[in-house]
Amino acid sequence: MKQILDAILAGDSAAVGALDVPDHYRGITVHADEADMFEGLDAKEKDPRKSLHLDDVPTPELGPGEALVAVMASAINYNTVWTSIFEPVSTFSFLKRYGKLSPLTARHDLPYHVVGSDLAGVVLRTGPGVNAWKPGDEVVAHCLSVELESPDGHNDTMMDSEQRIWGFETNFGGLAEIALVKSNQLMPKPAHLTWEEAASPGLVNSTAYRQLVSPNGANMKQGDVVLIWGASGGLGSYATQFALNGGAIPVCVVSSPEKAEICRAMGAELIIDRSAEGYKFWKDETTQDQKEWKRFGGRIRELTGGDDPDIVFEHPGRETFGASVYVARRGGTIVTCASTSGFMHEYDNRYLWMNLKRIIGSHFANYREAWEANRLIAKGMVHPTVSRVYPLEETAQAAYDVHRNLHQGKVGVLTLAPAEGLGVRDPELRAKHQQAIDRFRNR
Description:
Oligomer: single chain
Helix content: 25-40%
Mean pLDDT: 96
Shape: globular
Strand content: 15-25%
Number of strands: 18
């Protein structure tokens, strides 16, 4: 592994392909025999630091259409938090089901799960049938793993019957020194970014692109008023950038003055600090407060000059969904994913059906959408939102911070990279956007 790292750090891409691939590597895992360890606890009480392990694991066999990547950096997403607390179900059920598909996928059904759905790194090996990538290529990976043997996926790969999220519903993820991916997950690493910056946008950037920009999502247009929950967070920070970049008008909902300031730094002007203004959409565990929906809607109109949101960018879920449906304009769209505050949504259907609103479910992105989202990063039109970076050995603490909402933007993890700040190949483009690249740092 040291020889591979030395070659990468020296910029000797030709040497990488000539080196042996190690038999073992270090990766962050959960263990199947610990899947019941948090039974009886509320989700907020479950601690990823108890379930995430740094293990030495065997390097998987490389199959057709696949690539092994030396991972320089990765990042934390909510799906890693869900994996670590075994909610809503243990991911070992995903691995077992995937393992039944073929002799090749049986590799994934193991008593440990190497997690992580982001990476930036260097291709080590490619399997038979891979022509677009070669050893030594500097890449990032999106997290869509798809078989495409069904006709359902050939209009939109997210509709494929065997669509999965790599590192969550498959094994050998990116929070490790080596990762196994399908070659059609690979995209060029943005040359002006460091390894940790390049690793961080993948999942959330592509998710926000499909959810907000793509015709498969809300199909945002210029002038649309877009209500964005958690607008400074890992997902919302990209939605805010896409809204501003696409000529829309973001209304950013945050929970502190510090988060409001981040939104202003991105260029947003219309901001609601829901904590300062005291919005409580639930009277108790079972009863929502429609007066609070109305008060919230009035505040949005006050900021926009009387306009309701054309689009509501929804991801908190249960806590906010009733309010989201209420405040969307007549004929407006609520586009939803993730549900980080709970999956069981409740809303008053009268406000949906009588006002001809639409709810669109959105899940990650297809390859084309992920590629377009990464292209915007590479051109410096959308920027990474890394606020803090941990070494691989402290991944469990990083996941804990995300679980407890102690972070801003994205939390990065150095896997093979020995320090932050490495991997920049285009310093001129970086210098042009340095302030925007750094705006989430140390928040």
